[in-house]
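Example record for the data management plan.
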Amino acid sequence: MHDASHDIPGYQRVEIREWSRWSTPHAEVAGRRSTSTTRYTPRGYNIAAVRRLVTISILFALVLASCGGTVTQQIGTVTPQQAYEAIQANQGDPNFELIDVRTPDEYQAGRIAGAIDLNFYAADFQQQLGRLDRSKQYLIYCRTGNRSGQTLTIMQNLGFKNVEDIGGGIAAWVQQGLPIVP
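Corresponding structural encoding:
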């Protein structure tokens, strides 16, 4: 018999029978013995339904994760040669932009063909970056990689998903004999 003094307010007492050959005897049924376990659950909850719901939720989460339903970020540094290949492969693609973050004087002295200039030292530099389309692919560079490395972090914090920095900047680009325009 059940002792009500052990009940927990707001919870219901549920007796669960588990059948096994090795359990302590409560009743003999077809050569098997049952054990009785008392558990308490919040009133109004059906344990079997909650277990099914949790199982289905876990399976749904695993399926969703395996489907690649998440947007991946491609943010990092590439070599000048990789950058050159990316520029060649994306020529004429409106979703690809090459950004030079050097000063206007540095930009005028020589740049990679097709680059637009966004002066890292401009007072509204972050606002200029914020106005760019976050769904596009960006390749950024500066003189040696310092300013473009900082720009990479800023763009990542602004929610850009596909930004790459030319490691070593235009100095490394020129050192590898890659073309620039005046």
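Summary line stored alongside the record: The helical segments are 47-66, 80-89, 104-109, 125-130, 146-157, 169-175.
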